[in-house]
Amino acid sequence: MTGRPRRSVLAGCGAGLAALAGCSADLGTDGDEEREYDAGALGDVVEGQETPTRPETFPVGVPETMLDRHYGRARELVGAVPERPAVPNEAVAERLRERRTRVVRELEERPDAATGPDRLAAARRIRGSAAEVNGAYRAAVGELDRDSVAGNRRALRADVHGFRGGWTYRGGDPARALVVHAEIEGLLRTARQRAEAWPPFPEAPRRDVFRAGEVLGNLSEGWAAFADAGRLRTRYLAGVPDPASYRSAATAAAHRLGRRASMARRRLDEYPELPAPEAFERAVEGTPAARLYERARRGTEHAAGDVDSARRGGEHATATLEGARGLASVGAFRAAIDAIEAGEYGPPEDAGPVAAAREAAVTALREAWATEPVPVSAEVAEPAREALVSGDFRLEETDGEAYEVDDALAAFGYARLYAEAVPDAVTAVLAAVEGEG
Amino acid sequence: MSDWSRRRALQAAAAAGAFALAGCSSESSVSREVPPERGEPVPPADLAVRFVRDTGGEPLFDVEDGTGDRGTPKDDVRARPTRAEYLTDAEGRDRVTFRSTSPAEELRAFVDGTDLGSRSVYLLERPVSACYEARVVGVYREEDGVDADLCQSLRPADFVCSVDGVDTVGVGIRLPFPGDELSGHGWSWRGDCGDLRTVADEGGEGGEGR
After folding, report:
1. Could you give the angle at the alpha carbon of B50 between the alpha carbons of B48 and B52, nearest 5°?
2. Can you state the angle between helices A316-341 and A382-396, rounded to 10 degrees?
3. Are A89 and B160 inside 8 Å of each other by CB?
4. CA of A10: how far to CAs of A277, A297, A403, B125, in Å?
5. Inter-chain CB proximity B156 and A117 less than 8 Å
6. Which of A7, A344, B80, B98 has the highest CB neighbour number within 10 Å of its CB?
7. Complex ipTM above 0.85?
8. Chain-chain contact of B162 with A90 (C-beta, under 8 angstroms)
9. Per-residue pLDDT tens for A75-112?
10. What is the DSSP string of A255-293?
11. Count of CB atoms within 10 A of residue A270's CB?
């Protein structure tokens, strides 16, 4: 970032005019519409390449028995729905049958995921789907009543509230405690959301059986998340000899990191408010540079929003990790601006630079994941992994159009720049939980 | 933490939605639920709606098209298009001949019970699966016409019906204004009401006729 944004210079020119009237000397996008690529060569960039799997770093092991509780309950719920439901409205019966079949298939396929918490989340979702079909069926045959559903919602809300009241964020090593408690915060958030009175349970369940099913499915998933929160906490503490309470440390860390992230964002001057065409002397419209810039700009915006909402929800561990993501996203944005000002991220000649950008992203991501403490790094680096996956997706589906190539290149570029910013952000987390920074 | 990314996606979607809404409201000051090109919604309390249903799938009315030809629908009920008429005066009313079945009679009585000097009637019929009911989302008054927005929703689970059954549903909507200056009319029909708020439904009817 060598100078101030070129807003005043371009003001007389106009973003649209720049392209039309040659206001800027360095367009680099002449004949952009004709820019075409060899779709096969682009596909080869990802063909046979493995998307790096996030390391299994969650500090608490998730055994099969934990997953089986959800899958077992899902089987019971779906088993209680007849294969051919005897419901007078045949269209309702048919839809019930289709949904039942879908859940049975999901249960057979039993999705795999990279991490224990993700495997649990997948199991809870299937349990929720099974409860949804079961609830819709029971509504159809007149076995559901409004009052018991409302009571169930209230009970879940009360239990979540009770859990939060007696929760002191105990743990061993602070970095690992942070990651475990952030996961628990997420589970309690899910439980609370699923217990909310929206969508409302229908006044006449038989008239709206699928809405009734949706409410029951949500509730079941909410209870499952609540149960997992308790089990993870118990399992975690069972492996920690002398647990200390981190509640106030986490609160203070969230505050410190949130402040650091917003200060870092302020140091970006006007960039967070400037769209790509107004931010650079160089004309960047219709190039990978513009897409990279916008992606990075949005990244800082979303991270700031995530920090705010976690803090408002009293989720201190989550807010701390989101603060670290905020710092990393600002680092990535800054690096992107510098790179674009230095003339990088122009339209590539062919698939070569795209492949090179992907390779650099993979390398950077692996390095980020190797930064100690690894459980924290894996969490903070997640947006880089998501960007890499989105770039791969672009190329898998590509027709060789310029915008797809630009998008993929920008995604890989962002993945790399963000991953490179992870170690500093992780250092900031450690300092913050230890009362510094 | 597995739903961090989902949360992020939702935020992005919300932001996009807000952007689209902002775009709408800068063009017009109408409420957010109604796109500006839609016209002003007629207040639901000022509408009277009558639903009728011919379970044999027979047409409810025929319409003379001005050349002396009668718009008589084809036999296959499934292939029959939706037909809509906006009746604003006696001449228009006389072009419509109702059949002699009891649902058609009921619709005729509803139409003839309307004072076309101070009101107007929107009339529509279409094939609807026997397991679904019709609902009215709203009626919108535009500069030179009216627009009716309808949808269908599953009937109660304990209602006996076959997935193969197709009925003819007729809808009469009495509007609280005369239609002399309104020439055009249009309608839309959605296959699933989903979460839409509706102002009248076949199960309970609606408006002042409720």
Report:
1. 175
2. 60
3. yes
4. 9, 20, 24, 59
5. no
6. B98
7. no
8. yes
9. 999 999 999 999 999 999 999 999 999 999 999 998 88
10. HHHHHHHHHHHHTTTTGGG--HHHH-SS--TTSHHHHHH
11. 11
Cβ pair B161:A88 closer than 8 A: yes
Residues of B in contact with A309 (CB under 8 A): 7
Contacts of A303 (CB under 8 A, 6+ apart): A261, A322, A325, A326, A329, A330, A383
Both tokens of A84, joined, read 């051919």
Is A87 within 8 Å of chain B by CB?
yes
Question: Is A221 a residue whose pLDDT tops 70?
Answer: yes
Q: Which two tokens stand for residue A186?
A: 């997420």
Structure tokens at B168: 């003819």
Q: How far is residue B70's CA from residue B87's CA, in Å, rounded to a whole number?
A: 17
CA B17 → CA A301, B8, B14, B21, distances in Å? 16, 14, 5, 6
Flag whether residue A94 sits within 8 Å of chain B, measured between CB atoms.
yes
CA distances from B103 to A333, B99, B166, B198, B206 (A): 67, 9, 15, 23, 18
Q: Chain B closest CA to A12's CA: distance in Å?
A: 25
Taking 3-state DSSP, the helix, strand and coil percentages for chain B, each rounded to the nearest 5, stand at 25, 35, 40
Torsion angle of the four alpha carbons A165, A166, A168, A171, in this order, in degrees rounded to the nearest 10 = -140
The values of phi and psi at residue B115, to 5°, are -85, 100
pLDDT at A143 over 80: yes
Give the C-alpha separation, B168 to B103, whole Å. Answer: 10
Phi then psi for residue B77, to 5 deg, are -60, -35
Contact A379/B158, CB-based, under 8 Å? no
